[in-house]
């Protein structure tokens, strides 16, 4: 009887040891484990690049879930996701909602990008004034273009332009919404006289199957409401603050502990992540350092 009890005790201890070991091995840390992140679909290309490098560097698996801005915020507030990457910071009201749940969101500003206007490449006009776009959205459609094309009625680009135009919902006349940025690019490439509204990253880093369509559209230069000059959505114009449709990008982490979300945010805001941003054509929060080696003497190996 004693031997049988001893054997059972040893088995129980062994199982506990294995369970504890597996729990320790599978525990999420800032550089290990798995996590799902909801991302504003207008920002998807640059975040995919970041995830690819992060996963190749660390023992981590990040699943990106692209959604419209409204869908991303809804998921964040209703505990369907604890991490979101957005083209705006949380408002005071939104932050207060989290505080009521005893959650303090950690917000990381990591880059600036731009909303771009695109036209069919065969179009002669590559300039557009925001006041004309706003006027068009408010019903004055006597403009040089036939219509505006957005990616999604719930997207961050629609919210941004509705705010500029003083509107609460997307107009029904002359303004069209599809599903994705790629669909907008294709539509403009195939329809002269339309202006597409997309995240600039979709133009600077197109997928192979989209390169032909990107080659058929022109990125328009934009004049701000109070400006006298037209600016293209470049790194220089964003850095100088002259492009009127630039916007800041944020990682909003509501995990409440030091998990993989914190590690990924630190990576994106760090040297490697900022280099990826710089290479993509967007504007990093901080320009990565360039290390220069200065030699006091130059050796001449030739004899």
β-strand number:
13
Which structural category fits the helices and strands?
A: alpha/beta
- Identify the CATH homologous superfamily of the largest domain: Periplasmic binding protein-like II
- Rg over CA atoms: 25 Å
Average pLDDT score: 87
Total helices: the number is 12
Alpha-carbon distance between the two ends: 90 Å
The CATH class of the largest domain, by name, is Alpha Beta
CATH fold-type name of the largest domain: D-Maltodextrin-Binding Protein, domain 2
Shape: globular
Multimeric organization? single chain
- Please state roughly what percent of the residues sit in beta strands, choosing from under 5%, 5-15%, 15-25%, 25-35%, 35-45% or over 45%: 15-25%
Based on the coordinates given, report the CATH architecture of the largest domain: 3-Layer(aba) Sandwich
Largest sheet, if any?
10 strands, mixed
Walk me through the structure:
The longest helix has 25 residues, at 2-26. This protein is of the alpha/beta class and 303 residues long. Strand 1 (32-40), helix 2 and strand 2 (59-67) form a beta-alpha-beta unit. The chain folds into 2 domains: 27-112 and 248-284, Periplasmic binding protein-like II (D-Maltodextrin-Binding Protein, domain 2, 3-Layer(aba) Sandwich); 115-245, D-Maltodextrin-Binding Protein, domain 2 (3-Layer(aba) Sandwich), CATH 3.40.190.10. The chain has 12 helices and 13 strands. Strands 1, 2, 3, 4, 6, 7, 8, 9, 12 and 13 form a 10-stranded mixed beta sheet that branches. The protein has helices at residues 2-26, 44-57, 69-77, 92-100, 130-137, 156-165, 181-190, 201-204, 211-214, 235-240, 260-269, 271-280, and strands at 32-40, 59-67, 83-86, 106-120, 127-129, 147-150, 175-177, 194-199, 217-219, 221-223, 230-231, 246-253, 283-284.
């Amino acid at each position: 009887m004693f031997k049988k009890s001893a054997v059972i005790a040893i088995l129980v201890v062994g199982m506990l040891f294995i369970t504890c070991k597996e729990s320790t091995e599978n525990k999420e840390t800032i550089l290990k484990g798995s996590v799902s992140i909801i991302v504003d679909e207008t920002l998807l290309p640059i975040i995919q690049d970041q995830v690819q490098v992060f996963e190749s560097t660390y023992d981590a698996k990040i699943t990106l879930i692209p959604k419209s801005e409204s869908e991303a915020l809804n998921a964040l507030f209703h505990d369907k996701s604890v991490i979101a990457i957005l083209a705006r910071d949380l408002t005071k009201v939104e932050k207060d909602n989290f505080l009521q749940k005893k959650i303090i969101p950690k917000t990381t500003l990591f880059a600036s990008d731009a909303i771009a206007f695109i036209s069919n490449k065969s179009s002669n006009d590559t300039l557009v004034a925001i006041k004309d776009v706003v006027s068009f959205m408010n019903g004055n459609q006597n403009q040089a273009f036939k219509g505006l094309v957005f990616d999604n009625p719930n997207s961050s680009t629609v919210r941004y332009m509705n705010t500029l135009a003083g509107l609460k919902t997307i107009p029904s006349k002359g303004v069209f919404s599809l599903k994705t940025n790629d669909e907008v690019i294709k539509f403009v490439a195939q329809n002269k006289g339309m202006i597409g509204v997309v995240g600039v990253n979709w133009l600077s880093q197109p997928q192979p199957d989209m390169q032909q369509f990107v080659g058929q559209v022109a990125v328009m230069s934009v004049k701000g409401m109070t400006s006298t000059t037209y600016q293209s959505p470049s790194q220089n114009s964003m850095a100088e603050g002259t492009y009127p449709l630039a916007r800041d990008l944020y990682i909003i982490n509501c995990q409440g502990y030091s998990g993989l979300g914190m590690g990924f945010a630190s990576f994106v805001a760090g040297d490697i992540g900022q280099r990826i941003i710089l290479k993509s054509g967007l504007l990093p929060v901080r320009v990565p350092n360039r290390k220069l080696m200065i030699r006091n003497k130059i050796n001449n190996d030739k004899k």
